[in-house]
Amino acid sequence: MRCWWVNHKQTFAHEVGRGYIWCPKRKKNGTRNHFYETIREVQQGDVVFSFADAHLQAVGPARLPCYSCPRPDEFGSVGELWDVRGWRVDVNFTKFVRPLKMTVVADQIAPLLPKRYSPIQENGHGNQGAYLAEISMPLARRLLELAEPALLGLLQPAPGLQETLVQTSDPTILIEWEDNLQRRIAANDAVPETTRQALIQARRGQGLFKQNVSEFERECRITHVDNPVHLIASHIKPWREASDEERLSGGNGLLLTPSIDHLFDRGFISFDDDGSVLVSPVADHESLHRMGVDCTRPLFAGRFNSDQRHFLDYHRQEIFLQSQC
Questions:
Q1: Do 80 and 187 have their domain in common?
Q2: Angle 207-214/193-202 helices, nearest 10 degrees?
Q3: In Å, how far are 40, 74, 156, 193, 194 from 190, measured between CA atoms?
Q4: Cβ distance 21 to 314 under 8 Å?
Q5: Whole-prediction pTM
Q6: Calpha distance 226→230 (Å, rounded)
Q7: Number of structural domains in the chain
Q8: Rounded to whole angstroms, how far apart are CA atoms 52 and 295?
Q9: Residue 325 included in any domain
Q10: pLDDT digit string (tens) for 54-92?
Q11: Domain range for residue 222?
Q12: Residue 188 and residue 305 in one domain
């Protein structure tokens, strides 16, 4: 378990009220921000503290690891210059009965603040530009002792807690995002019916897209299953983030078994250009082992063509759950 501190600023009501945290993938000038990149390392069950308006306001466990998704509609004009897509973590927030003013307790927590990338200053004021920062367990414990001692149990998850956090399907917002895109495709009379159907089938890794990928892919890159019945044509740049051309491009695909497709689509694994299998630090190694990914030794998935390497760069930068800073 790791602990995190989020500075909400204008988006506090939206994020805590609806149970999530979200940040853009880049700063307005297009560069990376350490305090945005850290969100890629939040794991299910990690504890997230919420700070806004000079007060520590809420705390809760992350329901799922981070995932890529659009800027929330409810933000309205707030952050309208940010990237359309960003990083999101769903959190079961509990608001404190009495929010804790940081300047009042600054002297008690200052010795426990991170020496680097601290979310607040030693005087209790927030650090400009800091969105999400990791904090130590001793600091997390002290914060709960001061704010809401009844919630100290969050730092010692009881047996079965993980089961209560498990979500058996993809996050609702991802399903809604893809459903909306599919409706737009189906209603676009400017595109031939056969192409529209191919684009819709490609969402599930079937149809023309699978045919295109199968021209040079023969088996799952991880499990080596080669029966086409058991393989999905997995988009390297996800269907939901791709253009129509990219959705049907064979170079934007790999043949994977369903479990490996899930790991790849959600960013738990990726591939380097030389074929090395990359495993996210937030991935559960026991689960990966049961799915066919042996994390005890280096894995090699074979060579990729130039188109695949192009899309794999996107996957590593925009989908893979590992900080790039």
A1: no
A2: 70
A3: 38, 31, 56, 9, 12
A4: no
A5: 0.88
A6: 8
A7: 2
A8: 40
A9: no
A10: 999 999 999 989 999 988 888 776 555 545 789 999 999
A11: 172-318
A12: yes
